[in-house]
Amino acid sequence: MELSQSKTTIFQKLAWVYAAMFIFTVSLGYIPAFTDDAGMLFGLFSIQLRDDILHLASGIWAAWAAWRSARDSIFYFKTFGIIYSLDGLLGLITGYGYLDGGIFFAHFPVFPAFDFMTRFFANLPHIIIGGTAVFIGFVLTRKFAADA
User: pTM for this structure?
Assistant: First the structure.
């Protein structure tokens, strides 16, 4: 696959979108209008410092990849997409993810940690964001390579 490095590619632009999305996600937890008295984001999610660090690191990785090249952006989407999707699926099944270490600190047995609807809505963003990254990294790259 030959991708031009002289202009910003669709993959780099999408990586910039992911970078902005993650930085925005981190900032939401610090806006009082979006957190309740218990510190729950949208009344659904308990965002800890480790979550902010992971989201920020994801955004920095996306920005670095976008800045570097189309190839690095594609690598980001493939790798990040797999890691993030699997974390979301594990969270959906067990109620705990591995990226924040939750599964490692859970009391076993972990099935089910929370009711299904809580697990569903808590992990849906990870599944959508990770799944979209997998689509970009594996499917969209083939389409653009075929059109080139």
Answer: 0.85
